[in-house]
Design goal:
The protein is an alpha/beta fold. It has 2 domains: 143 residues, Rossmann fold, CATH 3.40.50; 177 residues, 3-Layer(aba) Sandwich (Rossmann fold), CATH 3.40.50.970. The chain is built from 14 helices and 12 strands. The strands form 2 sheets. The protein has a 6-stranded parallel sheet, sandwiched between helices. The chain has a 6-stranded parallel sheet with strand order 8-7-9-10-12-11, with helices on both faces. The longest helix has 13 residues. The termini are far apart.
Length: 356
């Protein structure tokens, strides 16, 4: 690590379990490391940290993925190297030195061959490692990383019309910093992981590799029982229909939560794959109409349907002020897709080109 010129720190869910956030921030500051995270590593390091590049992998940011590809030393804290993180595993390692910190020895060399395994509790391992790390400055490396970051298309964040990236940025700006975000599975999950500004561990709850549609609402209800904090649940119109009756349970138990249903009248992520990889042959992904607001009212909750950024902002203020569960149905364009994206099995810097 002391000899690295293009180092990167990758933070996974194991670092969350170890409560190693403070040590990772100290390591990144001392060794001047760009920080990337997996889906399960969201929130371990505050998203506002100046070294944080955000998520890496299939839906990783351009700078995050490019930094991993071109790193000479990759420090990995608590990741199992799932295929959604690595892409083509045969070409993931390249010429880089990989240092893997994990408490489970069976994870070492299981999916990726590593150069230096550090088996043990990640927090304890880092505490022993930190005194050995020399203070570093990688000016040229950071200039390259920032140049990659500048190439990412952020047009969906602008607010020209209601989009989920804009919605996530707005949530991050106006919600309490202590808010617990719970996501379902699909496009909503990836947009949230890309664009929410999560500042604390265990404030971003998702089913991860289980890929469980319908996870979001029951998990959010559980969060309201566990902590006395604002809870915002984010899901798609498909996932909500699988477990939506838990909105009634939230009303019955008088548990306040905000449920945001991203309605694009389809199973968004499956449709996206059909569009990009199956010549737009859509099969069983386009959904019929459903009265989400009427359903919310029938459960005893409040609700509002929104189609513009202004309407969403107003509905969110009503939801924050309400003492009941509140459902916001956000109507977005069906053609909005999650970008960046790397095709399954491709190298992390081989981004899918989307025709405009």
């Amino acid at each position: 690590m002391n000899e690295a010129t293009r180092p990167v720190l990758l933070v996974g869910g194991g670092a969350l379990n170890s409560d190693a956030g403070a040590e990772l921030v100290e390591l990144a500051g001392k060794a001047d490391l760009p920080i990337v995270n997996t889906l399960m590593g969201v929130g371990v390091v505050p998203a506002s940290n100046e070294r944080s590049l955000g998520m890496t992998g299939m839906h990783g940011h351009i700078a995050s993925n490019m930094a991993v590809v071109h790193a000479d030393v990759l420090v990995v804290a608590g990741s199992r190297f799932s295929e959604r993180v690595t892409g083509d595993r045969t070409r993931y390692v390249g010429k880089k030195t990989i240092i893997q910190l994990d408490i489970d020895p069976s994870e070492i060399d299981k999916n990726i061959a590593v150069s230096v395994p550090l088996v043990g509790d990640i927090k304890n391992s880092l505490q022993k490692l930190l005194p050995l790390i020399k203070k570093a400055k990688h000016v040229d490396w950071w200039e390259q990383v920032k140049a990659w970051d500048a190439t990412e298309d952020r047009s969906l964040e602008k607010g020209d019309h209601l989009t989920v990236p804009w919605l996530m940025k707005h949530l991050s700006a106006v919600m309490d910093k202590d808010t617990v975000y719970v996501t379902d599975v699909g496009q909503n999950q990836m947009w949230a992981a890309q664009h929410l500004v999560v500042e604390q561990p265990r404030h971003h709850l998702t089913s991860g590799g289980c890929g469980t549609m319908g996870f979001g609402l029951p998990a959010a209800l559980g969060a309201t029982f566990a902590v006395n904090k604002p809870v915002v649940q984010i899901c798609g119109d498909g996932g909500f229909k699988m477990t939506g009756m838990e909105l009634y349970t939230a009303c019955r138990e008088k548990k306040k939560l905000i449920s945001i249903v991203i309605n694009n009248s389809c199973l968004g992520m499956v449709r996206q794959w059909q569009q990009l990889f199956y010549d737009a042959r859509y099969s069983s992904t386009i959904l019929s109409e459903f009265d989400f607001i009427g359903f919310a009212h029938s459960c005893g909750a409040e609700g509002a349907q929104v189609t513009t950024c202004e309407e969403f902002a107003a509905a969110l203020e009503k939801a924050k002020a309400s003492e009941k569960p509140f459902l916001i149905e956000a109507i977005i364009q069906q053609g909005d897709i999650v970008e960046p994206m790397v095709a399954p099995g491709a190298v992390l810097d081989d981004f899918v080109k989307v025709a405009r």
